[in-house]
């Protein structure tokens, strides 16, 4: 099949355009199955988690810092508004949560491969606060000698070289900075401001300080045009960050839903969005930037790379989600409950799912498909005692007919264009899984919008 034929099939059969598009993270196909963990059960539950980590030599650590000082229209994490007092309280609870969890022995005998500080804007906390978190992690667990420690950062929180140097000095060795576009009109519409000169300075300062740096970009922003996207790419070519991520604008924030209701002309039409995804992916590929669907190593995306390899994630902070191979659990989202439980020396676990074997198999598929080598069929057979080509036969036959999946070197992997449109391929799989379970489990189109926004 020619490349054009594959692209046409993807466009007609898989592509979630701007009017109906709802992005689903690969992990999130079982939200309806969560069970509550009562405070009195938290200790026992952690024992079960510990048991499920048997045999794991390395883990990932995620720290959630859900505070931010503005609300971007594309925000899907609904952070709390920055507030010194609230952040101080959160920090002291977080430190205690790390201590309480480590006491349960979750980290005993294993190393931490990567740490990821996400949010919100982690750098809305002062360097001394971030240092306290990193110190607490190093004293509570064994960080690998070459542990990658990433912090997400808003450009406005990196006003000068000194802040970046200090972050490097306290142990952050990778930054992930949101930019999304350099188009001033779109940025203003989205409640953001960042200039090419500012991002270029941040990239240089980070690299001079010995860090690597990723710049997050988006397609499908309100009023975005092909011309604007191409201009962004030419600016990125000049700046040359170590990693770039292009994702599609996920329309979940009520603010952007309202904007689209008032100005329907700002919604990027499906054909233009398709071209934007194609052009940005082609650019990423040509310029040596790895992305979901074609990760080959841990250089540009260490935390993500090991996550896709199914390394367990132990997460700290309110709403933070942890994963072992068989259990997924969330911390309480509500800050009052979160701090109340910690004050009583209880690890604030709110809900969990024990993944069935079928869910584990689909999770393996969805995660490993995002690696260039794809789903390792030998490992799959060894773990589940089943042949993946038989388990996923219907999906495999449809998606390979569409020109999106292939078998190569013992893996089920994405083709070139399957990888460019990895989100659509994964969404197709998620939809198929949901449909198999029940006709009522359908994803909500974005036009319905999100329901919460904390900063307004
Ligand atoms: S997207 Fe904007 S509002 Fe949301 S956390 Fe990032 S900087 Fe804050």
Briefly, what is this?
This protein folds into two domains: 1-30 and 375-439, no CATH class; 32-308, tm_1862 like domain (pyruvate-formate lyase- activating enzyme). 43% of the residues lie in helices and 18% in strands.
Describe the structure.
The structure is a single chain. The chain has 456 residues and is α/β, with parallel strands linked by helices. It has two domains: 95 residues, no CATH class; 277 residues, tm_1862 like domain (pyruvate-formate lyase- activating enzyme, Alpha-Beta Horseshoe), CATH 3.80.30.20. The strands form four sheets. Strands 9-8-7-6-5-2-10 form a seven-stranded parallel beta sheet. Strand 8, helix 8 and strand 9 form a beta-alpha-beta unit. The radius of gyration is 21 Å and the shape is globular. It binds iron/sulfur cluster. Iron/sulfur cluster binds next to loops.
- Give me the Rg, rounded: 21 Å
The assigned structural class equals alpha/beta
Report the portion of residues in β strands.
Answer: 15-25%
CATH topology title of the largest domain: pyruvate-formate lyase- activating enzyme
Ligand list: iron/sulfur cluster
- Looking at how many chains there are and whether they match, the oligomeric state comes to single chain
Overall pLDDT level: 92
The CATH homologous superfamily of the largest domain is named tm_1862 like domain
Which CATH architecture of the largest domain would you pick?
A: Alpha-Beta Horseshoe
The tally of helices reads 18
The major beta sheet can be summarized as: 7 strands, parallel
Strands of the biggest beta sheet: in what spatial order?
A: 9-8-7-6-5-2-10
- Low-confidence stretches are 451-456
Shape: globular
CATH class membership of the largest domain? Alpha Beta
């Amino acid at each position: 099949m020619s490349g054009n034929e594959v692209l046409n099939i993807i466009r007609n059969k898989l592509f979630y355009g701007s009017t109906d598009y709802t992005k689903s993270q690969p992990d999130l196909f079982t939200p309806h199955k969560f069970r509550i963990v009562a405070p009195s059960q938290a200790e026992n539950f952690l024992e079960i988690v510990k048991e499920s980590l048997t045999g794991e030599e390395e883990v990932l650590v995620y720290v959630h810092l859900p505070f931010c000082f503005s609300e971007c229209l594309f925000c899907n994490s609904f952070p709390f508004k920055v507030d010194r007092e609230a952040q101080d309280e959160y920090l002291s609870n977080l430190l205690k949560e790390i201590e309480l969890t480590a006491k349960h022995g979750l980290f005993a005998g294993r190393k931490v491969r990567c740490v990821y500080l996400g949010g919100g804007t982690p750098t809305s906390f002062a360097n001394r606060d971030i240092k306290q978190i990193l110190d607490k992690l190093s004293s509570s667990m064994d960080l690998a000698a070459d542990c990658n420690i990433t912090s997400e950062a808003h450009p406005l929180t990196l006003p000068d070289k000194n802040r970046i140097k200090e972050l490097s000095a306290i142990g952050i060795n990778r930054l992930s900075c949101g930019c999304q576009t350099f188009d001033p009109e779109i940025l203003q519409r989205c409640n953001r401001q960042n200039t090419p000169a500012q991002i270029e300075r941040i990239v240089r300062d980070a690299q001079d300080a010995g860090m690597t740096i990723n710049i997050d970009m988006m397609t499908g922003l309100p009023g975005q045009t092909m011309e604007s996207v191409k201009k962004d790419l030419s600016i990125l070519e000049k700046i040359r960050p170590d990693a770039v991520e292009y994702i599609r604008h996920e329309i979940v924030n009520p603010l952007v839903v309202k904007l689209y209701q008032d100005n329907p002309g700002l919604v990027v039409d499906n054909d233009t969005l398709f071209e934007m995804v194609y052009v940005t992916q082609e650019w990423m590929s040509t310029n040596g930037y790895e992305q979901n669907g074609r990760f080959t190593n841990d250089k540009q995306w260490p935390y993500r790379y090991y996550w896709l390899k199914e390394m367990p994630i132990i997460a700290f902070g309110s709403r933070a989600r942890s994963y072992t191979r068989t259990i997924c659990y969330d911390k309480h989202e509500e800050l009052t409950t979160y701090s109340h439980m910690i004050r009583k020396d209880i690890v604030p676990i709110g809900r969990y799912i024990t993944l069935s074997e079928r869910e584990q198999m689909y999770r393996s598929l969805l995660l490993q498909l995002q690696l260039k080598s794809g789903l390792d069929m030998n490992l799959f057979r060894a773990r589940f005692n089943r042949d993946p080509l038989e388990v996923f036969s219907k999906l495999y036959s449809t998606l390979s007919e569409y020109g999106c999946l292939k078998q190569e070197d013992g893996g089920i992997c994405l083709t070139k264009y399957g990888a460019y449109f990895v989100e659509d391929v994964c969404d197709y799989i998620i939809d198929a899984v949901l449909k198999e379970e029940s006709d009522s489990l359908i994803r909500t189109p974005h036009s319905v919008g999100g329901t919460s926004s904390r900063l307004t």
